[in-house]
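Incident review: delayed structure delivery

Summary: a single-chain prediction request sat in the queue longer than the usual turnaround. Root cause was a stuck worker, restarted by the on-call engineer. No data loss occurred. The affected request and its eventual output are reproduced below so the record is complete for anyone auditing the incident later.

Affected input:
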Amino acid sequence: MRYSIQNVTRQEVEASNGLDIKEAPGTGIIFAELSEAGVASLQSLGAKVKKVDKVKLADIAPPIPIPVEKGLSASDLLGALGFTEEWRHLIIPPLYGEGFGIAIIDSGIRETHELIKGRVVYSKNFTTSPSGDNFNHGTGVASIVTTLAPQCDVIDIKVIGDDGLGTDETVVMGISEVISLREAQGELFPHVINLSLGKEDDGDPDDPIRVVCRIALDKEIFVVAACGNLGPDMGTILSPACEKYVGAVGSITYNPESPQESFLVSEFSSRGPTKEGLIKPDVVLPGEGILMADSKSDTATIAKSGTSFAVALGSSAILLQGEGASRVAYLREPYRFGGKTIPITPIELMDVWIPLLTIKPAGNPRDKDVNYGWGIPYGELAELALTGRPYSTMNVFNSIAEAGMMIMMMGVLIKQISK
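Output delivered after worker restart:
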């Protein structure tokens, strides 16, 4: 039986007759084959020993059938939320992800696809399957990102095999690789990790994937994960989206022909709370009928649904907002210091910024809830943040009576859709 092991050394694992031992660099996490006696021996030394779990992707299986001609482009979806071409030009030069890296930890990428070609700068495969994307998932995720941030650098980390499955080990090793790239401080400098995958949350904060996500966050890498497609049942948020500062993204509907059917939480989208009682998701974004690259050929496209693809929209938004924030010379306090910007950390993004950048349809709780989280990221609120307007201007959303502000903001949103 294969286990993840923490709080002991490799030598101690070897002394407990561990076999096929692998270490995830910089994490303190070891994987090995152990007998029951070996598990008991390590536990007597204070080790945290846990069976290796399987990890799955967070798209809809079987897929909701959507004709390609009815698919919605990623650009149109974010445009409906106020992240338009005009929004890109708020900061000079415009925001297209230049110089920013995103690690797509997934089923691999068809790097030669016309929507992705030239953007993948690094690839590594932690599965026993061939490189590439024979499961047809990571290619779609990558194409959403490159559509919205066409000048970003994509880091292709394959942790899901061609059967659609990975393990704690492949995911931990993949995230560890990204952390190593970050620490090297070279040309490959990942800023965001996209995890369109997960497994059942067992409430264990020492789960190896959650541990390695916390290490990445400590290195100031933004980690964004799919909530899962187990809705509408409550308490179905996947791990590692259940981790406090991992950005958990759920899915909402969007129908350009019917505003009344838009911005509702998708029936399949997992709801909180987590097993530890945290309110999740953090945000929700469109996740139904998104048009993306198909790994079957270099030109094929497909329309898919799932929180996997809502996450890709969220990762792209973080790339662009991060790029914008890094260029602004005058952000509001406390991010202004001596005329230079202080980089926004993942914790600051979650605790300070996301509540200010999101809205909800009228009738929903103003505070974070288990359906919408904080709500839907909205372009006009991001503009306030990135252009350094006074805090009181941005904070008006939290200080005006809930119903009136919700109605006003949704009126702006629907007006944008109807253009």
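Verification: The chain has three domains: 2-52, 55-323, 329-417.
Action items: add queue-age alerting; document worker restart procedure.
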